Amino acid sequence: MSTETLPSEQADAGGSVFSSKNVLRVFFEKWPLAVLLALSWIALLVIIVAFAPFIAPYDYLAISLTDRLAPPLFLGGGWAHPLGTDELGRDVLSRLLMSVRISIVIAFLSTLIAATLGVSLGFIAAYFRGKVEQLVLMLIDAQAAMPFMIIALAVLAFFGNSLMLFTILMGFYGWERIARIARGLALSANEQGYATAVRDIGASPWRIYGRHILPNIASTLIVSMTLNFPEVILLESGLSFLGLGVQPPLSSLGNMVGYGRDYIQSAPWIMLAPSVVIVLTTLAISIVGDWLRDLFDPTLS
Amino acid sequence: MPLVSVRDLKRHYDIRLTGGLFGRRAKLKAVDGVSFDLKMGETLGLVGESGCGKSTTAKLVLGLIPATSGTVSFDGSAVTAAHDAQWRHMRRRMQMIYQDPLGALDRRLPVSAQIGEPIAVHEPHVPADEREARVGEIMTSVGLRADQAASYPHELSGGQRQRVVIARALALQPDFIVCDEPVSALDVSIQAQVLNLLEDLKERNGFTSLFISHDLKVVRQMSDRVAVMYLGMIVEEGPPEDVFHAPMHPYTQALVSAIPTPSRRGKRERIVLEGDPPNPVNKPSGCPFHPRCPSAMSECREFQPMLASHGSRKVACHLRPAPSAGLIAAE
Questions:
Q1: Out of A185, B55, B302, B310, which residue is the most buried by the measure of CB atoms under 10 Å away?
Q2: Range of the domain at B254
Q3: Which chain B residues are within 8 Å of A189, Cβ to Cβ?
Q4: Is B146 within 8 Å of B136 (Cβ atoms)?
Q5: Which domains does chain A have, with CATH numbers?
Q6: Which residues lie below 8 Å from residue A185, measured CB to CB, with a gap of 6+?
């Protein structure tokens, strides 16, 4: 190849072997498209959680029997009810917005409770070892051995149902997995040089666990939390579907699916909208969790 | 009075060997009766082949692991292995430099935070900006650039990482530093730099140190006194020039003859030891070195030789009986 045929950009680069990247490509390498979409979906959910009553076109409880089972836009309905109406003539979009609010708040708080509980117990087991560890492991095994649905049914049957109790109950879902992971990772971190070195400096256990071990194992914990989050949404949906979760007149995503199932043949849109939201939210949280894991790792930059 | 005084230190591990239904119980004697003193400002080099208990001794002396028996005293107070507040307080005065610098550093924290950590732990009242200024000074003194403060361990080279570990150990100007093979993971050219740095720092700060290495040249350069370990025991101790020029114990003689030096070629015969180092699980009776010793006698099989003084040095060998009872009493 003679020098005349060299492309002009290469000559402009002054003989450098690196070619300058397109600005857009650099941007998408840093922010992959899937992550951007997932983040915007989560941002949308956050906005809905904050402002649902103001965005909703109708009161989510307003019944209008003349508009019963109106089809949504994509099935030939009108703009009055973009996502159609349900069997009582309530606007599905308005109900969906309120349901997202309840479901997301429950899932978020519960995951936070589960993570705090799990990490604390896991660290306590790893630090004290011996009898304390045995006790924690026994609790973990007891929790893992019992189907959570049965525990939830029993608790809700005994204590009645309130949103607060329900959220705390959901917080006990999945803590045992996080505790097990936290304990295992803390034990292996304790054997690694960095934790030993900090202990040899004379740092207190609070400092060793809080400042060194926790950030080092955070990526794995975050992934397991992002797995827990959608599961709580699904569990809440399941319990609401059974009529034990969020009680009417309040509405949640699972609750909507549960009541919409009677009309699955004649009016599928009633349960379609909340189902799509559940799937998309689950997916978005997983994608963002994976991305966060990489983001928090300084060795992967 | 010595700063550090170690008396008859032992560390045995209960292990199970394969064989039988549940395995046989056995005792692994990693360290089996080590005694030495360290005067203020002195460096004791500890040499020996892998698995002879050098690193275990280091951990025992610092109280990182509990001893089976024996005592360690530091500046008059006993060093225990209970990791309580008093133990943590003692860390201020005794620090360790590790063999694997990457492993000893937290890969998620910038190096300046890690160098400043001892200050944050032991002097929490020092404000953050003053701490950073001190970290900057320490970094300069170990030869790190100020702009490397924000970098993470994986962004530094092996030698720079070891400088970070040294800087962290020196942050509070401790009295006693244990260097556990500080240069064995480094390149030869970097080894020299780090050793020179340690010597400079020692001259400036005057700390007492226990310097562990399997490299005789390194120990010779660094120490005021050297102790040779074999199977958890000290077999010879003395000034490095004497020990390396005129070794008294047959094991030291073999070690010294293995130092590769071009000038000595032809002049000195290399002593090649027969067999592998015996397993510390079933130590030979009598002198632990007798199965490999070229000049073993019948009494070596039966009686364990004690460390006996010969002027400025000590040797544990039946070939070198204590010169006279008077010398031992004077010791």
A1: A185
A2: 4-93+174-330
A3: none
A4: yes
A5: 100-301 (1.10.3720.10)
A6: A122, A213, A217, A220, A221
- The ipTM (two decimal places) reads 0.81
How much is the pTM? 0.79
Spatial separation of the C-alpha atoms in residues B183 and B179, rounded to whole Å: 9
Cα end-to-end span (Å), chain A: 37
Helix axes A175-191, A193-201, angle to 10 degrees: 70
Same domain, B239 and B324: yes
CB B40 within 8 A of CB B4: no
Q: Is A162 on the interface with B (CB under 8 A)?
A: no
Nearest by CB to residue A216, choosing from B90, B106, B152, is B106
Last residue of a domain, one of B126, B154, B173: B173
Residue where a domain terminates, one of B156, B173, B190: B173
Total number of domains constituting chain B: 2
**pLDDT tens track of chain B, all 331 residues?**
788 999 889 998 888 877 777 777 888 888 888 899 998 889 999 998 888 888 899 999 998 888 888 889 988 888 888 888 888 888 888 999 988 888 889 888 899 999 999 999 998 898 989 999 999 989 988 888 888 888 999 889 888 899 999 999 988 888 999 999 888 888 888 888 888 888 888 888 888 999 998 888 888 888 999 999 988 889 899 998 888 888 888 888 888 888 776 765 555 667 777 777 777 777 788 888 888 888 888 888 888 888 888 888 888 888 877 665 444 444 4
What is the rounded CA–CA span in Å between residue B280 and residue B301?
Answer: 16
Shortest alpha-carbon distance between residue B328 and chain A (Å):
37
